[in-house]
Amino acid sequence: MDRKTDMTEAATLSIAIVGSGGSGAVTTGKILLEGIARHGLYALMSRSSGPQIRGGESAVMLRIGQSSVDALDDDFDILLALDWLNVERFSDEIPVTEESLILHDPDKGDLPAVYAQMTHRHVARPLEQLAKSIENGRANMVGLGLLANLIGLPLAVVNAAAHDILKHKGEVVLQATLSCIETGYAQTPDETLVLPLSAPEAITERWNISGNEASGFGALQGGVRFVAAYPITPASEILEWLAPNLEQTGGSLLQAEDELASINMIIGASFGGVPSLTATSGPGLSLMMEGLGLAVASETPVVVANVMRGGPSTGIPTKSEQSDLNLALYGFHGDAPHIVLSALSIRDCAFTTQWAVKLTETLQAVAIVLTDQSLGQARAVIAPPRQPALEGKRKLAGDTDHYQRYALSDDAVSPMAIPGNAHCIYTADGLEHNEQGTPSAMATDHQQQLDKRRQKLTQFEYGDDWAEVTGDGEICLITWGSATGATREAAQRLSQAGLPTKTLAVRLLAPFSTERFKQVTAHAKQILVVEQNHGGQFFEYLNAQRVLPGHAHSLAQPGPLPLRPNVIYNRVMQGL
Amino acid sequence: MHGPPPEQLLKAKDYKSDVKPIWCAGCGHFAVLSAITKALAHLSLPPEQVALVSGIGCSSRLPAYTHVYGFHGIHGRALPIATGLKVARPDLTVLVTGGDGDGFSIGGNHFMHACRRNLDLTYIVMDNEVYGMTKGQASPTTDPGWEQSRLTPHGTGLPSFNPAAIALAAGAGFIARGFSGDPTSLTDLLIQGIQYPGFSFIHVLSPCVTYHPEQKAWKKTVHEQSQSTTADPVVAAQRIQQSDRMATGLIFKAISQVQQQQHPSKNISLEQISRQFVTHT
Which cofactors does the annotated protein need, by name (chain B) (predicted)? Predict the structure, then answer.
């Protein structure tokens, strides 16, 4: 692992586990992740699978570090292959180097050329044969034991993690698993590799969470108590996590007949005074746009968590891409000011979703939170999420006579009456209306209400959470959402290579913080805007805001392959 | 949140707003509005505990003309808005109004699933067999040979949609047909529908005097159904299929087996919920 120590950044270790569907690659990864967490380290685990329900290939990719891990590395140090089914479909996603170590079962066929040519460091062990010697034994757990020994994870820790992950499977499965892990652990390989990372002395509280779970938890923290749900990959896990947990808090979730229904259901529930959210992905968000316009016009607070995937159309449903930005920003008909936020990491999914709920409740507004498959369906070991300072309560109408639902005021947020309030009965409307709420086609009413709906968003003080700035230097990398992890890592490598580099990761995409953005980028000599889509949507958006100098460049790389730090690093090194 | 004292009897006018309807003189919807306010007064429902949700179209303008909480939403989506509201606020009495285009064409999928979901909602569809707001196009209930629309000058040629049959097939527990020309019976049907503890569908024949002047003749062709209400869906299906679709009354009322979304109220703290994520080091 010399290559790692060459890097002055914190050393990390990357492991890929591959196998056909049903081989247990994902379970192996989950146990390993939990073991790493228990050992006091951080990690990121992303999954790659085909669209098949069962029987396709699947792969998990872990990266382990002593501090928070927010991006996959350029290549993998260890590849554990349970078998080689459809290896050509994922080999692009799992690049190796001449120093990479490959663990495989010789009974599952020869090493594919793509890997055999690249590295000579192979460890062949009859994983399946060893598993067969144990009643109910499984090859993936033998592989797990072998892997754990290689990276120096104590056997007791792996066993405890396996117990945690598999306890619902019953005692028979658990005992077989522990025997397999032990058998694998005893298979000391020829190569001497030790975990290059030692556990920190003081271990603080750690969470093992997926981005979609974090979004769901953030929604609950924000106060959401009604959710309408229509299943879609890769967002369903937000809804599936919320279903039982929302019930625990006294809230309710309803499965809708389609996305047209789900968006309107949350509008209805929010009109009833209950903070509400739905989750979807690109095609579903397209269907929701008309409903979101209604929420803007009627000033009914709602949040849509949009977990992006490859598009357009059905696109690549199981793979990540940041290509719904244009839809989220510009998809509305009419002049419809709204909030667009992006989560910058798995941990940040909780913060940003919670902030979105609080902002929409405060401002009686619509928010779209953009995450993506690479955040939503990945798991990470994280420090507990931080929480926004904003109280986030709706301004409610009291017992005033002559109530005007859409009254004009300095902050442009008018008190909202909730059904049950006998003094302030009104009709919410998607038709343009006067202050009273009565439909109106008059120019003055339209102008006033357009101004009101814009001003309440633009006049609000969003504070320091609009973006995160890391590092410093005359090179500035500007990014958003899930691209933040790889971009920050590239900036660190550039800084260590003698090119001090700053990263600006924008969380609040709309309304846009023009002045703050200009302050951060004022002294940049070189600017590169990094994102994972084909059209450079964020770059175009920044140009529309007129905040980029003419020399700014765009690095836009579509999915399905993850955006890796070296792509960004090399682009800057080659002079942009 | 102060309702009127219980001894104070509410009148129909207490449920009316001072907004003047945009409807044409002679429109059937005036009588439906009146019947709704009479039904609410009869039930003495506090106006602040009632919500009236609608989509888009002439009849969907109705909420603004009432003095209860209202939501004038978007075309075809009244039922989902009402569904979310009712689940979030089961204490409210939620009524949904709209027209035949709104409910059976653009909102057709929601109609089926609202029947199926069987929440305690009352859905009042004012059917005049035409899109009035957009100036006279054929709707799903329009006669196939109607050639008065510029959009379909040769008629639609399509069999007209039978709302009661669809509601029954989709699982609605309360299916009635009313007529704006008989406001007393209509009020009675509305009262029963509001009281029914599941999804009640009230199909109201409500003439459009502008685009369907011939519907003025409904006064003569509409008649009371000859049989009494049935709780047997097989019998109801037969009657609905055999009927001339002009028979009014409560067609079908199932023994209510309402699937409410109510869960025993739990109040587990978020700190407790977060423990599922904490790893043991």
Answer: [4Fe-4S] cluster
A27 vs B: CB within 8 A: no
Q: Which residue of B has its CA nearest to A384?
A: B278
How close does chain B come to A427, measured CA to CA in Å?
Answer: 4
Contact A291 B77 (CB under 8 A): yes
CB contact under 8 A, A381 and B279: yes
User: Beta A501-506 vs A475-480: how paired, if at all?
Assistant: parallel
* ipTM associated with this complex: 0.96
User: Tokens standing for B104?
Assistant: 């059976």
Q: How many CB atoms lie within 10 A of CB B185?
A: 17
Return the CATH fold of B19-277.
Answer: Rossmann fold (3.40.50)
Closest residue to A438, CB basis, from B64, B112, B263: B64
Query: For residue B193, is pLDDT > 70?
Result: yes
A199 → chain B, closest CA residue: B281
Q: What is the pLDDT of residues B231-270, one digit of tens each?
A: 999 999 999 999 999 999 999 999 866 555 555 667 899 9
φ and ψ at residue B29, rounded to 5 degrees: -65, -25
Mutate to test the interface with A, among B50, B81, B276 (most CBs of A within 10 A): B81
- Alpha-carbon Rg for chain A in angstroms: 25
Rounded Cα distance, A514 and A503, in Å: 17
Place of tokens 């739905």: A278
What beta strand segments (E) does A193-249 contain? 207-210, 226-229
Cβ–Cβ contacts within 10 Å for residue A576, how many? 14
Determine the angle formed by the axes of helices B108-117 and A259-271, rounding to 10 degrees. Answer: 60
Annotate B57-111 with three-state secondary structure: CCHHHHHHHECCEEEECCCCCHHHHHHHHHHHCCCCEEEEEEEHHHHHHHCHHHH
Closest partner residue to A248 (CB to CB) among B17, B89, B266 is B266
Among the listed residues A563, A348, A327, A379, the one whose alpha carbon sits nearest the alpha carbon of residue A467: A348
Chain A residue numbers touching B48 (CB-CB < 8 A): 419-422, 425
Block residue for tokens 């389609």: A258
Question: In order of start, what are the domains of chain A with their CATH numbers?
Answer: 2-185 (3.40.920.10), 208-382 (3.40.50.970), 395-460 (no CATH), 466-573 (3.40.50.920)
- Residues with Cβ < 8 Å from B46, sequence gap 6 or more? A422, B3, B4, B10
The C-alpha of B18 sits at a distance from chain A's nearest C-alpha, in angstroms, of: 10
**Chain A CB contacts of B76 below 8 Å:** 260
For B83, the closest of A39, A268, A417 (CB atoms) is A268
Does the bond joining A511 to the residue before it have cis omega, within 30 degrees of 0? yes
How high is the mean pLDDT in each 10-residue block of chain A (576 residues)?
Answer: 38 93 92 94 89 74 94 95 87 92 94 89 94 96 94 93 94 96 87 62 89 98 98 98 96 97 98 98 98 98 98 95 98 98 98 98 98 97 96 95 96 98 97 96 98 98 98 98 98 97 98 98 97 98 97 97 96 91
Among candidate residues B131, B126, B132, B102, the one with its CA nearest the CA of residue B114: B102
